[in-house]
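Ops channel
N.P.: pipeline sanity check, posting one input/output pair.
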């Protein structure tokens, strides 16, 4: 059994501390880090999540917490570093950076550069030693692989993992009583496992939570994968309770929950009420989904049982179908 990665990072931290430093690196304050994706090539790699993971582990090796954020598209993060508002900036890999007497940097690997203020030379040296030793560890490839080998569940035949967050997904799926691959399928649909994903409506992170929803369920840092996932799971659990007296079985319960996660519980209540008005068996999602195309008409919206007006719900029906399709493929390709 391989040792936990946290233990590895702690050992690396002690080794680097002994070899690179003579005095304390910091005053115990959090490591302030910004991850910039401004010049990154658009692709399926989870660069932000990978850099977030490394920065968090580096802070742990230093014996401190981390405050990690995504840099704004037009933000001059290097100026923030020069003026002491950040401790570390992680940039996409470039062959060179412009000469700057106020900055010092290390190549983290083939896809990233870590930049420090020159006055933090000790910390920069510690980071360089930590990164160098990390790359020599036999477990490094296992850490890195899930961030760079993300696959389309509809085309992959087999895999040892689904995402870099499988262990977290399993924990929070257990709190729901879900198969973890179903929760993974939802996350793939929502964000493709990109922690930095943001929708035009402001939904953010792995679970694509809207700001008010995130705060309601205790997520104050939308970029943090565990906070975002935990809040999303709590929301799902709250939503699921609304359909336990309606759904015919666990499978149907999951479908109603997915639909409400996408469209909102109040919208799905309207759909159920209208299906019931037509005499349909509302314990099965397919029967409710069958009436949704009619709900875009004003005549339907005028019914007393419809609270939110017309509903163009084709996207919700498709959402439930896609998540279930991903789930069925995950059952076959991942142990």
């Amino acid at each position: 059994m391989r040792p936990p990665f946290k233990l590895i990072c702690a050992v690396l931290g002690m080794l680097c501390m002994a070899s690179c430093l003579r005095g304390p690196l910091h005053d115990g304050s959090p490591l302030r880090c910004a991850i910039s994706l401004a010049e990154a090539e658009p692709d399926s790699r989870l660069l932000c999540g990978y850099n977030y993971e490394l920065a968090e582990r580096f802070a742990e090796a230093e014996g401190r917490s981390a405050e990690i954020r995504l840099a704004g598209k037009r933000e001059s993060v290097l100026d923030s570093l020069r003026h002491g508002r950040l401790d570390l900036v992680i940039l996409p890999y470039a062959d060179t950076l412009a000469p700057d007497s106020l900055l010092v940097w290390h190549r983290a690997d083939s896809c990233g550069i870590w930049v420090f203020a020159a006055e933090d030379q000790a910390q920069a040296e510690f980071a360089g030693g930590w990164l160098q030793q990390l790359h020599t560890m036999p477990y490094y490839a296992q850490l890195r692989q899930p961030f760079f080998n993300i696959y389309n569940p509809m085309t992959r035949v087999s895999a040892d993992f689904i995402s870099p967050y499988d262990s977290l997904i399993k924990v929070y799926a257990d709190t729901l009583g879900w198969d973890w691959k179903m929760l993974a399928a939802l996350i793939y649909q929502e964000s493709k496992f990109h922690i930095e994903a943001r929708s035009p409506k402001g939904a953010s992170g792995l679970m694509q939570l809207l700001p008010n929803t995130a705060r309601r369920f205790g997520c104050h840092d939308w970029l943090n994968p565990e906070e975002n996932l935990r809040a999303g799971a709590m929301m799902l659990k709250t939503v699921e309770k609304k359909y336990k007296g309606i759904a015919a079985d666990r499978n149907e319960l999951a479908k109603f929950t997915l639909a409400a996660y996408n469209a909102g519980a109040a919208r799905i209540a309207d759909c159920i009420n209208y299906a019931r008005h037509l005499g349909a068996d509302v314990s099965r999602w397919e029967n409710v989904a069958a009436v949704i195309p009619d709900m875009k008409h004003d005549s339907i919206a005028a019914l007393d049982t419809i609270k939110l007006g017309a509903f163009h719900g084709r996207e919700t029906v498709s959402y439930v179908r896609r998540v279930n399709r991903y789930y069925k493929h995950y059952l076959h390709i991942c142990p």
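N.P.: looks fine end to end. The first helix runs from residue 5 to 20.
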